[in-house]
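In the previous chapter we treated chains in isolation. Here, by contrast, the input contains two separate entities that must be folded as one system, with a combined length of 676 residues.
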Amino acid sequence: MLPDFTEMDTFRALLANAPGPDAQATSGATARNAQLTKPPGALGRLEDLAIWYGGWRGDARPQITSPQVIVFAGNHGITAQGVSAFPAEVTEQMVANFQHGGAAINQLAKAAGARMDVVALDLDRPTADFTKAPAMSENECLSALKTGWNAVDPAADVLVVGEMGIGNTTSAAAICTALYGGAAAYWTGRGTGVDDAGLAIKTRVVTEGVARQAAGARDGLDILARLGGREIAAMAGAIAAARQLRIPVILDGYICCAAAACLHRTDASALDHTIAGHQSAEGAHQALLQRLDKSPLLSLGLRLGEASGGALAINILKSAVACHSGMATFAEAGVAGA
Amino acid sequence: MLPDFTEMDTFRALLANAPGPDAQATSGATARNAQLTKPPGALGRLEDLAIWYGGWRGDARPQITSPQVIVFAGNHGITAQGVSAFPAEVTEQMVANFQHGGAAINQLAKAAGARMDVVALDLDRPTADFTKAPAMSENECLSALKTGWNAVDPAADVLVVGEMGIGNTTSAAAICTALYGGAAAYWTGRGTGVDDAGLAIKTRVVTEGVARQAAGARDGLDILARLGGREIAAMAGAIAAARQLRIPVILDGYICCAAAACLHRTDASALDHTIAGHQSAEGAHQALLQRLDKSPLLSLGLRLGEASGGALAINILKSAVACHSGMATFAEAGVAGA
């Protein structure tokens, strides 16, 4: 069901020829929505969500029973420059915390009734410091994309991807600066909480990295390899695989959306099967969501990563679909219309 | 455990002497939050919610297992003036829909793991048309307050109250105009979807009702009786009872908040155990939330009532509490600090 790929250009072709929503299911869901026992439009965005979801699932009266949350972890060579408030070994320590059920995302996935998978990518092989060399070779990036691609459960009916990787807000800022231009300072935030000196280092690292790596990049996938990280590439691979499987995706915060932005720059329709779960407090996430033309479901000041904001939004989507598919119509309930 | 009252002044005294949060639980929850495996503040508002909830429950590491949703229904004499897009008999038809599980709130309560109760208040006795006489006598209002008061399950650990009552956005607008002043048009919205002519009627009815009823009102409870409805008074009674039982409340939309505002005007601390579940698309809800000093958890364009927006927010509060009480500390997980 899920096609395979062995070269980056094959992945590009899969992106370009990905399936779209089912028009018949979309119109069926739209018609059903108009008959439900509520004033027209009274469920607001929940109505749009349910119709969108039904279209992608090819089902005018869908159910959500099997959400999947995947947390990808990777290490970053740029941490040697002092871009994070936490030491690099925290990546591996947090992976253990995920595996033992102690992190925020464990609680949030459980509260959403979601299966949770943790995928650590070569933690003993950090990416290169992108101020000196490309973060990943094309083959390393391809390998990470495939890891994400193959991590998606074909039986899932909604997917949230997230990440853990000390240093990766710097990588995300570099990706955004390369993709969208503007000053590095605009795209660079405090991540896990660096002080002013740390923020100055991050901004310099982003500036230098983009100056060295961005020239000559053909598309978002080139940017992903040169400035990204293994966990960022894996998120991009998982988002793309979900599209092939017609599994709607809820995007998480800044780093997840930077991964998504690499797909979006490569193919403008590559994120049509995604919605923004939340607006992170990480500085430039709002600006990035605007570039992706996504309106967040939640805005609660989260800035944790780990798929946390996306997972928190699963219950919103579930509730929307539950209303759509579970409510009685005016005729069924014997309720008079307007 | 829940005190009884037989006079309005006894109810006033209960409001004035209601219990507050537990300072020891609040400080215990605050200390625990600081040790959890995440950067400080990275869960944003979820952290504040969990600490607030723990304080009210008197438990530094609380659980949410038993949410309760109550939908109160009442009929309004002002419907005779043509203030709604729907006929008045829809109130009773929707009560049947609630009882049969076909309404939006049934799906939302289920998605939140909440018990749902439906309480219809004298549907065959609409309130008086408040452009001609007080909507309720003090005794009628007291009776409705008591119905709400007694509907709260003492074993619940979070409460959402909502309403069904054709005509009740007009009543809510009249309450807000009387409590906060300003033009009736400022507080009057389209409710279930009236056209421009209907909106003009609503605005005139609110103007006339406030002109006739507001003078000489001593407090919010007087306003509630003169311009409210039985379901609105019942919501106020349930919110006040939850305070006695230290059950945190998630407020729903415009009409629920108008009920809450009557308590707030009567005693400024009467809503300290409540949070705003969402910002409704009903015109003046945002302004009303500002008057109540509440910041909504969700803003998804809902304008349905029925407790729908409050119920949708239950899973946010549950998720916040699940993170707080379920996460490992840095020491437990062996994760290095910043």
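Residues 308-326 of chain A form the longest helix (19 residues). Chain A has a mean pLDDT of 97. Compare these points with the single-chain example from earlier in the chapter.
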